[in-house]
Design brief:
Aspartate Aminotransferase, domain 1; single chain; seven-stranded mixed beta sheet; 12 strands; Aspartate Aminotransferase, domain 2; three-stranded antiparallel beta sheet; 383 residues; alpha/beta
């Protein structure tokens, strides 16, 4: 078989991205909150029936805004999974919060909602569910716990755009949701994000925090005669060039999701035989969840097999990767008092997970090359 070079991810252009960028430049305004930023926000608010959606420079800064809006103070506690990217933990940690990491479920690799109540104390301020791979956490029990203990729910839906839980879009279920438009996400502008304000009490302050702590948005709406510094904040506005690129992708959301789901389903069907033989496990999608084809992973028997397969595929020109290193075992996690063995499911699953290339323009030929090489690996492997 001819060797093919297949990257893990590949940026793409689907519509009028470059045309819209040119329009933004010719408009004479390429700083934040111009016409394309407004178009993106309007499109997203309409699509998701959201109270308010503001573009940000990244999902990380959307989470930073969420931490400020939540009123986190030193020694407040925030519950989240350890199996996630650093952004959510860092946003709240930087505000002085104590991060309470808990284990994940074996089926969908999301926070185990059945364990959350055991970790709630009088200091708990918020729960941060992370929708891994665009597959929803069990949100109903989480929302019920939040109501019972008067907690905020901030959804890290970085990977969750267009995915649903019981018919509701991810990011719109908690008090606040956060999206990512990073290069690796379904919809991208290189770097970018959005904050979804579902709890209307946070809307006015969110605008202020995003505008460097000023009431500039109220000024432009004619609600105040001049704008000034009224709160903490930073420059969380993306450039109009990014918004212009993003708008073209959002216009083609249905096409993008359909293509990614087709590629995801192709992998899923192809690995059925290997799963039946007990050589790997495919992703599990709960019946009440509609995923978005964001990523495809396989779970191997053990860490050695996972690492050997990564090396084997690399020799064949295929860049397949592991995903998160559990945060409770990071230098900061250890500093917080965590140690190996405290979250056994997280540690086990993280050590065996392998992500395969999945991007909008991936072809059946490329997928077949990946699939065939994984079958060859197991055929040649000595058990």
């Amino acid at each position: 078989m001819e060797k093919i070079q297949i990257p893990f991810n590949k940026p793409y252009i689907i519509g009028k991205e470059l045309y819209y960028i040119a329009q933004a430049v010719l408009s004479g305004k390429i700083s934040g909150d111009g016409e394309f930023t407004k178009r993106c926000s309007s499109l997203l608010e309409k699509r998701y029936a959201a109270n308010k959606i503001l573009l940000t420079t990244s999902c990380s800064t959307a989470l930073d805004m969420s931490a400020i809006l939540s009123g986190i103070e030193k020694d407040d506690e925030v519950i989240m999974p350890s199996y996630t990217f650093t952004s959510a933990a860092n946003s709240f940690y930087s505000m002085g919060a104590k991060i309470i990491f808990i284990d994940i479920r074996e089926d969908n690799l999301n926070i185990d909602e059945r364990s959350i109540e055991d970790f709630i104390t009088i200091k708990t301020k918020a729960i941060i569910p992370v929708h891994y791979g665009g597959v929803s956490c069990e949100m109903d029990p989480i929302i019920n716990l939040a109501k019972k203990y008067n907690l905020l729910v901030i959804e890290d839906a970085a990977q969750g755009m267009e995915a649903k839980y019981n018919g509701k879009y991810l990011g719109t279920i908690g008090d606040i949701g956060c999206f990512s438009f990073h290069e690796t996400k379904n919809f991208t502008c290189g770097e970018g994000g959005a904050i979804l304000i579902n709890n209307s009490q946070f809307i006015e302050r969110a605008e202020i925090i995003r505008e460097k702590g000023t009431n500039r948005s109220k000024f432009f709406r004619g609600e105040v005669k001049k704008y000034t510094w009224v709160d903490i904040g930073s420059s969380f506005l993306p450039s109009e060039l990014l918004a212009a690129f993003l708008y073209a992708q959002l216009e083609n959301a249905d096409t993008i999701i359909k293509k990614r789901l087709n590629s995801w389903n192709y992998y899923y069907s192809a690995f059925e035989e290997l799963e039946k033989k007990g050589l790997l496990r495919r992703p599990i999608i709960p019946a009440n969840c509609k995923h978005n084809g964001h990523l495809f992973y396989i779970l191997l028997e053990n860490e050695k097999t996972r690492n050997d397969l990564i090396s084997y595929l690399k020799q064949k020109g295929i860049l397949a990767v592991f995903h998160y290193l559990p945060l409770h075992l990071s230098p900061i996690g250890l500093k917080l008092g965590y140690s190996k063995g405290m979250l056994p499911k997280t540690e086990d699953l993280a050590s065996r997970l392998l992500r395969l290339p999945l991007f909008y323009s991936i072809t059946k030929k490329e997928q077949d090359y990946i699939i065939n090489n994984i079958y060859k690996y197991f055929l040649n492997k000595k058990f």
